[in-house]
Structure formats: C-alpha cells, structure tokens
C-alpha cells in the first residue's frame, strides 16, 4: 500500500507500507532514508496517496522503487524526535555564527536533524551563488554528522517556517497547498487589485499571495460576458462609454458623451442595443461593429455566415464564384465585363472564340475553364502557358 509521509517544514515523500491494513492518519512512523532512518507522520494513504503522487511535484519526482516504512514509532522514539526538534534551535544559532565568521552572504533559515542524527540539513536563502565548502567542513566537525546544504527561495522559506497570513489563518503553503506555483501580476490586474501598492497583495514572503490564483478563473470567465471597459457601445440612447462593470451584481455603468452616467443591468443593456442585436456593437477606431456569440451562432445555423470581403451572392445581378460572370481580381486574368444576352449564349460565344498570341502575351477566352485564386494549378507571373489543345505549336 502506498502512503504519503510528511516531515518537518511540510516536506513530504511517498513510501510503501508493507503491513496489512492501512495506518491511521497522523500516525508517527519510522521510514527508510537515504542514509539511515527518519521519522514522520502519515499524511495520506491508499487511493488518495496514489492521486497525490500523480498530481504533485514531490510525487512525480519520487523514486521507483519506493522506500519502505520500517515500523510505527513507539513512545520513546516520539520523545526522542521531540528532543531533536528542540535542539535544532541551538544548531541554527551555531550555524549562523559560523556563517558570519566566514563572511558568507547567506541567511540560515532552518535546520533539521534526521531522526537517527546521522545527517543535518541546513536550509538557507541567498541572492547570489555562495561558496560554502569551508562552512560545511566546519559544521561537520562541530556536530559530527553529514551536513547537506539546501538553497531555497523566499516562498519555500515561508512554507518551512510557517506563520499566520493576512487573512488570520495559517499559511496555505504550510497547511495544505501541495505545490508553490508562481503568481504573476496580471492575475491581480484581472481582479482589479491595485499593483501600485504591492504590500497590500503580498504575503509574508514578500511575493504575491498564493490565494490570488484561487478565483482567477472565475473573474476571467465572468468578464467575458461583459463589454470591455472604455469601449463605446451603441444603445437605444445613443453612443455611450462603458465606465465600469460589476461582475457580482451584473451591472454596467454607462457614461454618455453628454449627460449623467447611468447604471443598468447586464440583461437590460443587451435589450437596449441598437437594432435589437443580442451583442455588443463595439467601435474600435471606426464604425466597425463586432458581432456577438449569439449572432455568430444564428449565422452558423442559417448558413448566412460569410467573409465580408466576398461579394454578396444573394444580391441581384451578382453570380456565385465559379460562374462565367464572376471575375476574381487577379493579375494574370483579364477582367471580363458581363456581355449582353443569356448565360448560355455567353458560353457559346466564348467557346467559339480562338486563342491568340501577340508579342509573347496571350489572351485566351476561358471557355468556362477560368482558374480561380487558390485552386491547384493556378499561375501568377510565370510567363505564357502551354496550350493543352494544340501541343507543340502556337495557336492561330
């Protein structure tokens, strides 16, 4: 059975439980370590531990095959571990003195004894690379144990030391948050939080609070239902500027070009749009109106959606692409004007016209075979084409 064990400073790892029956949560256990044995408490077991191993950073980086849980800790072993935790304060103070004596530009954040006291882990923060080889030799001679130096960031430092956040609760990173992911300033801007005063949205570590990411997706999804602030919308009252939106009350504050601003519900704004369109008529540098999702869905259902650069095929006097009267704008195809008469007469007239060549330039009636833009075999600026009807000679 797979179990997840947590150690000091919210350090977690996965181990194999070789005994029948699952251990209770928060049970102190002795586990196999890299050099010797270590002690921790059970954090999760069984199916939950398997999910966490597949979805957490420390789970994906765990070794395979896994180390095993040796046994459940006895009362004496628990008391010994508590004594080690108390001695770590003195160890940290001695390490700080050694670092200052050597003039090292680093901050010793925490120290952790392995349960069998064969290894000492020293966690530190530093802005630049530090040569701590002499520092390690002095610590190993002082404590008589193998010393491991771990360079951590300020967020990991807050996770190890633990504390109370601005919300009055324990740090999420130290309590339950499995992974520490970076938080960008754009997350705060999307939630309309001021970035001019970073201390208002920063945690004890000095970085942006981890909780800013929890509701970010909700803000992004809700704002898609509203027009963008600063845009001009055409409503039944005329052109108005979107001053602000309230995604919780679902209201929009509109400011007309002249007059007092007004606050309208989102559904009412949809009904007030010019032409009863169920979408925003946003003006961006001109009189261009952007179609909404509802309009696009209706167009897709009726088959009316088309490229605005293409001619309207439903307009009178316009033929569909591919017919004889449709002349695309191409450099190597001469423009044809619609000739009088019926369409059948036009086809017969063009089919009987001979193809001529004058001065290396060729003007050939298409006879219903005009190449259109984008079709395979089209030519642009490649010289005269070979006549497929008269092989090996010029046409007359």
At CATH level 2, the architecture of the largest domain is 2-Layer Sandwich
> What is the H level of CATH, i.e. the homologous superfamily of the largest domain?
K homology (KH) domain
SSE string:
EEEEHHEHEEHEHHHHEEEEHEHHEE
Overall helicity: 25-40%
> Per the principal axes of the C-alpha atoms, what is the gross shape?
elongated
Q: Could you report the average pLDDT, rounded to the nearest whole number?
A: 75
Specify the structural class: alpha+beta
Q: Briefly note the CATH topology name of the largest domain.
A: GMP Synthetase, Chain A, domain 3
Placed side by side, the strands forming the largest sheet appear as 2-1-4-3-5
Low-confidence stretches: 276-381, 386-396
What is the terminal separation in angstroms? 90 Å
Structure, described:
It is built from eleven helices and 15 strands. It has helices at residues 46-55, 57-60, 75-102, 133-143, 154-161, 172-175, 185-190, 216-223, 266-272, 293-302, 343-352; strands at 2-6, 12-16, 28-33, 36-45, 69-72, 107-113, 119-125, 146-151, 232-235, 238-246, 251-256, 262-265, 282-283, 356-358, 361-363. Strands 2-1-4-3-5 form a five-stranded antiparallel beta sheet. Strands 12-11-10-9-13 form a five-stranded antiparallel beta sheet, covered by helices on one side. Helix 3 (75-102) crosses helix 4 (133-143).
